[in-house]
UniProtKB/TrEMBL annotation:
The keyword Transferase applies. This is Bifunctional pyridoxamine 5'-phosphate oxidase family protein/GNAT family N-acetyltransferase. It comes from Micromonospora sonneratiae. Its EC number is 2.3.1.-. Keywords: Acyltransferase, Transferase. GO terms for molecular function: acyltransferase activity.
Length: 415
């Protein structure tokens, strides 16, 4: 526990103050940025910056030419006040006076010093990079001696620290309760979006930047003799656009044929956004022989509770039809669904006009269940009837034998 001092003792709302080290450390570790307040030449300054905690020292990143870091060069150091705030919710009351916010905050007072030891400085910068993504330090180039010299690091020992937080619901006057106004809490949270690669990046998004989902919503890489399935990513756009530039590929799909790279990118981004929402699990298909990107496929309508999943959003470049690639992709997806995830039912949906797709699904061993009338709109605006097929867990043992025999014999069951 941090000691209570005159500067860390609250004048009001004392029930919200905490001095537990573990609580303060958790907030500092969760937050990515802080505000550093100090005075220079008698003038107040407050600068936002990145920080990282290593044990009981907080390290702050900056430029060697910045005012606070210049002031921290002296033996006396730089007296500072550092704050971190995590906003957790907006509190709406019936009365305007009692509107508030739920939050967790840390205030640290102390004297910051410039880090001059190169080993400590490198360790602090590595820790900061690791905070952005565990494993990132090994997945990026370390700073050169010139870059290290141009970067300044402040060290603030955590000695005088307090935590303040507001949790819970609305606090207001009892006489306001009958008022006909909505009251309650709107939760807030910081959530990462879809990683956007820089121009020219061909490396896939690293695992530490991907959301953590259940296995049902995770695009686990899979490999067979004909096809490799790997998580769909933006660097696959060029390969998909080049491989699927044939109108027949898109004839019965939910998207019109992409006419440009931007159109193809929009399709991939749509899939990634659905994956980010937990609505799809998209893979890219590569030829196992050449490594070339040839198509894409997905899980969707994933219901872990009822142990069901659908396979679809599949498109494959025409040169690879009847090569065994799509057949083996379905085998890999079905094996994962039934044997790894424990699914009891796998579903397919296809346009009633798409006879080729219906025959291919039937050759997989799936059973036709019926037709959903006016189920979806086609790209041209017309309404399509959708044929529904399914395979259940008790049918899988027979179906997989048939699929493996067809692949062994070089017979394609799905175009």
């Amino acid at each position: 526990m941090y000691p209570r001092t005159e500067r860390t003792t609250a004048n009001r709302n004392r029930d919200r103050i905490d001095y537990q080290r573990a609580t303060a450390h958790a907030i500092l570790d969760e937050a990515y940025h802080c505000v550093l307040a100090f005075t220079v030449d008698g003038e107040p300054r407050a600068l936002p910056t990145l920080h990282v905690r290593v044990d009981d020292t907080l390290y702050l990143h900056g430029s060697t030419g910045s005012r606070p870091l210049l002031a921290a060069r002296t033996d006396d150091g730089l007296p500072v006040c550092l704050t971190v705030t995590m906003l957790d919710g907006l509190v709406y009351a019936r009365s305007q006076f009692h509107h508030s916010a739920n939050y967790r905050s840390v205030v640290a007072h102390g004297v910051a010093h410039l880090v001059t030891d190169e080993t400590e400085k490198r360790a602090a910068m590595t820790a900061l990079v690791e905070k952005l993504g565990r494993g990132r330090a090994a997945d990026s180039r370390p700073p050169s001696r010139k870059e290290l010299a141009e970067t300044a690091v402040l060290a603030l020992p955590l000695r005088e620290v307090s935590v303040k937080a507001r949790l819970g619901g609305v606090n207001e006057e009892p006489e306001d309760h009958p008022l006909p106004h909505w009251a309650g809490v709107v939760p807030l949270r910081l959530t990462p979006g879809i990683p956007v690669p820089d121009s020219g990046v061909t490396a896939p998004v690293p695992d530490y930047l991907r959301p953590t989902y259940s296995p049902w919503l995770t695009a686990t890489p899979m490999r067979g003799e004909h096809v490799i399935l790997e998580p769909l990513d933006l660097p696959h756009v060029d390969g998909l656009h080049a491989a699927t530039g044939d109108p027949e590929v898109w004839q019965h799909l939910g998207n019109p044929m992409p006419r440009s790279r931007d159109d193809a990118a929009a399709i991939v981004i749509e899939a990634l956004r659905a994956a980010h929402r937990g609505e799809r699990v998209p893979w890219v298909q590569r030829c196992a022989v050449t490594g070339q990107v040839v198509g894409s496929t997905s899980y969707y309508e994933v219901d872990e509770t009822r142990r069901t999943v659908a396979i679809g959003y599949t498109f494959l470049g025409r040169p690879w039809w009847r090569t065994g690639i799509n057949t083996e992709a379905k085998l890999l997806l079905l094996t994962r669904a039934f044997e790894e995830l424990g699914a009891v039912r796998v579903v397919w949906h296809t346009d009633i006009r798409n006879d080729r797709s219906q025959r291919a699904i039937e050759r997989l061993g799936a059973q036709r269940e019926g037709v959903l009338r006016m189920h979806r709109q086609r790209p041209d605006g017309s309404w399509r009837d959708t044929v529904v097929y399914s395979m259940t867990a008790d049918e899988w043992s027979t179906a997989q034998v048939t699929l493996r025999e067809r692949l062994h014999q070089g017979v394609s069951t799905a175009a």
